[in-house]
Amino acid sequence: MYRHSFSFRPLSILPLPLLAGTACVTYRAEPLRTFAELATPAPQVDVVTLREAVHWLLQRNPRLVAARGRLAAAQAVAAVPTPAANPTLSVGPVWFTPAALVARSRNGFQASLGWLLPWQGTRGATDDLNAATADAARIDAVAAAREEYLGLRDELARLAMLEDRLAGEQQLSSILEEGVAAQRRMGLRAQLGALQIDLAEFDQHAQASQVDGVRARLVAAQVDVARRCGVAAARVAELPGRARPVLPVALPVLDELCAVLAEHPALARLRAAHTVAEAALRREVSRQYPNLSLGFAEEREQGVDRLSLPLGITLPLFDRNQVAIAAAQQRRAARRAEYEATVRDLLLGLRGAFAQLELQQGRFMVQQQHTERLQRAVEGKLRMLVSARSIDPAERTAALRRVQQARIDLQQTRAALFGAWAALERACGAPLLRFPGEPEPPDAVPPLPDAAGVASRHGTAASNSGVGR
Question: Which of 141, 150, 152, 145 is nearest to 227 (CA)?
């Protein structure tokens, strides 16, 4: 470390502290807004499409707001170059002996000014560390946006499935209600007929409770979407057909998904953290070198000026910053080990999610074929029996109930298939389902080139990443 010092006349040195003080920053308090000021109603806007949801997600999502705040703080630090060490100023009288101090026969005045500079490369290494930290904050903000975007897509798909489930349960409730009314119109007064009516009413009330339960789950799903987007839950309206996700025709290729996995948000964050650890290690290594101090001093005694050139160096015999270097090396090794373990874990998770998707896809296709075939057969026979008036209301209600329950079961299997697609999206870190009529992901969630290739080949929507670049 080098130290440069300059000699001045005492009167010329005294104004320097005043000049330095004028460059200081003054403190200005910025208190938090009160709870009453913040407790204002959320935006009263309808969220019925992915486009609208993403708009409010990027503006009001608490996690993204916090990530942008951390990014702004890190960028503010990186924008300021590491300053040089402040100069050292010392002034004062000089007495040469205790007797001279009493007699004041020999006295003088001493002034010195020195400038201690860090070892060459230390300031640059600190600037590199600050820049790497800011870039890691940027990557974290983009990765958080991608994760929130994927979570929003999952919630919107689940919301659409619950809306379909509610419609199916309500239709089943209407079938049971019509069955009870039909049996009452038949005027069955026998004990067996009364029992059938009571049992039918029992089923009707049980189904009404089932409808209320599905409606409660639907409201909870709307609240999840509203909280993620920062809007009022009452404004999360029913998704129209143009906003509903579409099941892809074919499954993606596993090898292509593994290529997309390289840009997973978790891996992007770990790569950035390893870069920060590397920069921190370089800075600690640069701090192990000795400090060199060089300065000028002036003493005036009885009208006689004396100039001196003090020169010093710190001998690194014991402290060579070993502790900090060892800690930085271990942090870098820990980041590398964590990255490699996460790669292996994500690959296993991706293959597991893909296997689950294959199973759900096969289950849905088989169940859909059987349900549609049997539904057509039962409905055809029912029409014939109703036309011939050879079926009583209880039997007709039971048949319609079985058909509608089969439709609800198929819808639940379809919802499970959408859930498997959402799990695969989270596993590979890229959107795969297609929301018709929606634009490309927003600029804050840049698209993945590899994911775009997967989407174009399999009828799926490409996505939002590029975090690790």
Answer: 152
How many of the other CB atoms lie within 10 Å of CB of 367? 16
Domain ranges of the chain: 3-18+44-289+298-458
Span 249-306, pLDDT tens digits: 889 999 999 988 998 999 999 999 999 999 999 999 988 887 777 777 776 666 667 7
* Beta bridge partner(s), residue 298: 111, 307
Cα–Cα distances in angstroms (integers) from residue 166 to residues 212, 222, 403, in the given order: 9, 14, 16
- For domain 3-18+44-289+298-458, is the CATH number 1.20.1600.10? yes
Residue 435: CB atoms within 10 Å: 22
What is the pLDDT of the chain when averaged over all its residues?
80
Tally helices (H) and strands (E) across the chain: 13, 6
This prediction has a pTM of: 0.80
pLDDT in tens, 410-430: 999 999 999 999 999 999 999
Dihedral over Cα of 83, 84, 90, 91: its sign: negative
Q: Output DSSP code: residue 246.
A: B
